[in-house]
Design a protein that fits this description.
globular, four-stranded antiparallel sheet, 8% helix, mainly beta, 385 residues
Length: 385
Amino acid sequence: MKAKTSILFLIFFGLVLGFNFAWSPWLNLQASTVGLAPKAGRFLYVAVPGIRNYLGYGGHGLLVFDMDNGHKFVKRIKTQGLSRNGKPANVKGIAVSVPLNSIYISTLGTLQRIDLTTEKVLWEKPYEGGADRMAISPDGKTMYLPSLEKTFWNVVDCETGKLLKKIEVVGRAHNTIYGPSGDFAYLADIASPLLHVADTKTHTIVKKVGPFSNGIRPFTINHNETMVFATVDSLLGFEVADLKTGKFLDRVIVEGWNKGPVRRHGNPSHGIGLTPDEKEIWLADGHNMRLHIFSAEKPYQQLTTIALQDMPGWITFSMDGKYAYPSSGEVIEVKTRKILMTLKDEFYNQVASEKMVEVQLAGNKVVKAGDQFGIGRATKKVVVN
């Protein structure tokens, strides 16, 4: 009886041992990929809370969606950016440095750097005057970080977070675009009708574009840095200026829709983007909860409108121009204007944010990244008559 029991025990032990060996590669694979970026593909990184500090739009963290797999939710990366009361602070901006393999998230008072392979926060630093929507140089080394609607921009070293210089403007530093050439940064001060242009070699203001009709809100530029399309206070529409000459050119008003109260930002149109081919301008309409689409060439024909599930406060695009991403959470096919889906987190809650960016990975490292501003990517010039 004892011999039979021993034989049965050995058989059972052998089966268990064999099972463990057979499954060990799977177990090892799981262990090795926990906390690591996906190996390859195109992903949408969405920072939340990206609409004020409202946790009802996706909670807290950095959400990753697979752009090549129906924008399926992949994971939630733990982030910092807490207020003094321990609650998540408003996310103000998001940007990527390809050479440093890092993604940056600004909140009301701090900037955090996250490694895109390990998905760990490398550092978080506070800055004088707070932190707003920043932009990174094409070489990934330098950041223009606006104070939180104070009188200056901080120029920051992307690797260390060290402050390099302070650039004074007028009164309410806010949206920032680093030009594709790397030669200029474009600084929108809400308190001024002039767009400030900084020389990125000296970090000094060398030009002012405009004046526009009012304080400048979200804006975008073409790839050649010859044109700027800007939303301004109190306008349901956008205005156009020449970045080279500094001259104001046009004012375009949305036709067929009335202005009205908005839930956030206090502005009828808060959000504008150029399609990557620079053929169309997509414009936010907060009161009517719509996107209005215009030709990007004069006379800026109003083409169509798209109804959204919530108020849009921002708009950007995938690098290939296939998808549009309003901050209300829809994924829109640019060519057909169809809403394909809405972003949802791991709990199937709808996700919305004004701070999202495309990241392309290979071998767990970033090889290419988009921008949060809907900047043009065509090398041709936009025709101006």
